[in-house]
Amino acid sequence: MSGRRLLAGLFVLLAGGFVLPAVAGSDQEAKLAEVVEVLRELEAIPEQAIPPALLADARAVVIIPSVIKVGLVVGGRYGKGVVSLRREDGTWGAPLFLSLKGGSVGWQIGAQATDVILVFKTLQSVNGMLEGKFTLGADAAVAAGPIGRQASASTDAQLKAEIYSYSRSRGLFAGISLDGAVLGIEHGDNAACYHHPGIVPEVVLGLAPQAQPEAARRLTTRLRALSGEGER
């Protein structure tokens, strides 16, 4: 999917007033509520959170609550969440459900759940993710992101990655290494959330606010606030 095709699809859908029922399935609604809670926690600790300047310049944000890491010698990660893309008019689009799966090798014992946030800086990386399975570190460079209000995404010479990664544990956010983890679109969750079998990412991204579940609208409201683009 090229950037031109994606944007063209969005314009057609928005202009046509495409409407779907604005009620999510119960599982998807619960997941959206988790995502909103992660963003609420992010707002509550501005000195230890993702810099607003980084979010303001983002092309997309992935939020995956409660990623599970389990391992004994060979470890693995799994979690489900959503991605919201910034549209051509600068607003945040309806959430698209996805999963994160990944493995690592090493001496690991035990299980750990953590919230993961990925900030996409380029449209090329976003389009790669929407086309299918997308491997972090292989399909796009990923770096542990800076934290705090004093971190400047525009002046730090080291901040040149396409994607910045964060994790939250015990209320604090920090950079995290996710090289090798795979992002994939969860078509079943999108169909259940928007009550439309076979719905494709372009349609979800083009949904007007009134066609989105209330939990989805709360998510985009939080993203606007965190990006310094409006009131909560």
Q: Could you say which overall geometry the principal axes of the C-alpha atoms support?
A: globular
Strand coverage percent: 25-35%
Q: pLDDT average, as an integer?
A: 77
Q: End-to-end span in angstroms?
A: 33 Å
Number of domains: 1
Structural class: alpha+beta
The quaternary state of the protein chains shown equals single chain
Low-pLDDT runs of 5+ residues are 1-22, 153-157
Q: Compute the number of strand runs.
A: 7
User: What proportion of the residues is helical, as a percent range?
Assistant: 25-40%
For the CA atoms, what is the radius of gyration? 17 Å
Number of helices: 7
Helix and strand sequence: HHHEEHEEEEEHHH
Largest sheet: 7 strands, mixed
What does this structure look like?
With 232 residues, this protein is an alpha+beta fold. It has one domain (3-226). It contains 7 helices and 7 strands, in the order H-H-H-E-E-H-E-E-E-E-E-H-H-H. It has helices spanning 3-15, 26-44, 52-56, 123-130, 187-194, 201-205, 214-226, and strands spanning 60-85, 96-120, 134-135, 142-144, 163-169, 172-175, 182-185. Strands 1, 2, 3, 4, 5, 6 and 7 form a 7-stranded mixed beta sheet that branches. Helix 2 (26-44) runs parallel beside helix 7. The chain is globular. The two termini are 33 Å apart. Residues 1-22 and 153-157 have low confidence and may be disordered.
